[in-house]
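Target protein
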Amino acid sequence: MKKAIKTATLQTLDKKIDSIASTVGALTGTVDTLKGTVGKLTDTVDTLKGTVGKLTGTVDTLKDTVGTLTGTVDSLARSTKEGFDRMDAFHTDMAEFAQKTSLTLFNLDSHARTTNERLDAIEKTLEPLMLVSGAMQREFREHERRILHIERKVGLAK
């Protein structure tokens, strides 16, 4: 089989050139549209770069704030631990104080009981002496009265 040779005519060539020119024109329009779109995308990318820069600054500020807060929380935790440690020491001191106070009160109570027992014994011993003393006082008064009476009779009393 032989191929048939096509003969190109001027009209056919003109049509093909017009068709190519039309296609090139359409492609040029498309390229121009793409250039506009690329320009808009470039502007959008630049805007996004600015936004990312601002966000980076904000993130850096937040990092500083978080660092400060972490330091504050650590300081608060140390202070709280020291407070609880002091409370434990205070509790220990108070328990020792209570034990010593209890022992002292027990000793004082023992001394008070011993003293009370001794006073009771002394009182029992002195009770008869008190009765004798009262009787002696009565007898002494009676003697004084009699002497005064005798002195009056004798004339010595004023």
Q: What stands out?
A: The chain is about 90% helix and 0% strand. The two ends are 196 Å apart (CA to CA). The longest helix spans residues 10-154. The mean pLDDT is 86.
